[in-house]
């Protein structure tokens, strides 16, 4: 079976399209990050890798939050 390559903006996506498409895709990713980081989800306040409180970075490809130290390792 042959799998088609993922197309479009974001992780694993291709480059191309208009500026309006790029801005729309950027808004989609920003919305996803805001949803992941919502205050109602207490687990998102700790680093996924080391459990340190106070995350700084988000890996949107897998939807995890990491601290500054672990972000350098990833």
Automatic annotation (TrEMBL):
This is Arf-GAP domain-containing protein. SUPFAM superfamilies: ArfGap/RecO-like zinc finger. The keyword Iron-sulfur does not apply. GO terms for cellular component: cytoplasmic vesicle; membrane. Pfam families: ArfGap. It comes from the Eukaryota. The keyword Heme does not apply. InterPro entries: Arf-GAP_FG-repeat_protein, ARFGAP/RecO, ArfGAP_dom, ArfGAP_dom_sf. One of its GO terms (molecular function) is GTPase activator activity. It comes from Neotoma lepida (Desert woodrat). Residues 40-73 form the Arf-GAP domain. GO terms for biological process: acrosome assembly; intermediate filament organization; spermatid nucleus differentiation. Keywords: Metal-binding, Repeat, Zinc, Zinc-finger.
